[in-house]
Amino acid sequence: MYADRYGRHGRINPGSFILALTINGAILGGLVLFANPTFKKQIEHHLKLIPIAADPLPPPPSPPPPKPHPELKVEPALRQPVDTSKSVIVTTIADPTPLPLPTFTPGPIDGTGTVGTATVEPVKPLPPVLTTPTIDPRYANLFQPVFPPDEQRAGRSGRVVVRVLVGVDGRVKDIARVSATSDSFYDVTRKRALDKWRFKPATRDSIPVEAWREVAVSFVLAEGE
User: Fold this and answer.
1) How does DSSP classify residue 169?
2) If DSSP states are collapsed to H, E and C, what string results for 97-132?
3) What is the torsion angle, in degrees rounded to the nearest 10, for the CA atoms of residue 78, residue 82, residue 83 and residue 84?
4) How far is CA 49 from each of CA 38, 41, 43, rounded to the nearest angstrom?
5) Helices in the chain by DSSP H: which ranges?
6) CA 137/CA 197 separation, integer angstroms
7) 200 touches 170 (CB < 8 A)
């Protein structure tokens, strides 16, 4: 009984052995054929690669529309009430005197037809021609005043210096005392100047004008008086 059991396990099954050889031969043959380049090319020739199209990407989302800007509301300015209880000082601003515009004088034209440079120089106004009043020779003998009787009795000589305003007609319009030996000498001189003195009036650019001038009068006693 024991001899049969051990003897049965020691034998090789012919069917299993043939199956194992067939599988190993197929694997070995496949390796040999795959290692052959000619067989590999034939396999690649018969095999066709079918490209698989990728799913199209969805289009990008459109940008959102711009948000409208909020309208600015301008509030009307509130008018401040005028305070009439306080005094207001108004300052007057005078218009500035306009400056004189310079005059442009074109320079000489050269051979190319262009105008040369010009120098603008301000024109200075000429000073006015003035003349002072002079004694009219037709009335020169009327200039000496009468000798004051009180000074003559006292035997005193004198001298008077006055300033007179000569009008455009040559007459004395006013007189001012500069110096005098006494009031008597000044009084007779003032009366004679207003009544008898005549001048050629002063002029500004040959036009008669009023002007002041100074006149000196001497009072001398004759010998024996």
Assistant:
1) T
2) CCCCCCCCCCCCECCCCCECCCCCCCCCCCCCCEEC
3) -170
4) 19, 14, 12
5) 2-9, 14-35, 37-46, 149-154, 183-195
6) 11
7) yes
pLDDT in tens, 149-194: 999 999 999 999 999 999 999 999 999 999 999 999 999 999 999 9
Whether pTM exceeds 0.85: no
List beta partners, residue 200: 134
For 76, other C-beta atoms within 10 Å of its C-beta total 5
CA angle 190, 193, 197 (to 5 degrees): 175
Residues 6+ apart with CB under 8 A from 151: 157, 158, 182, 184, 185, 219
Of 224, 225, 146, 220, the C-alpha closest to 187 is 146
Judge residue 219's burial from the number of C-beta atoms within 10 Å of its C-beta, 0-12 exposed, 13-18 middle, 19 or more buried: buried
Question: What is the pairing mode between strands 172-180 and 199-200?
Answer: unpaired
> Residue 216 is inside which H or E element, if any?
strand 211-219
Q: In this structure, are residues 162 and 187 in contact, taking their beta carbons and an 8 Å threshold? A: no
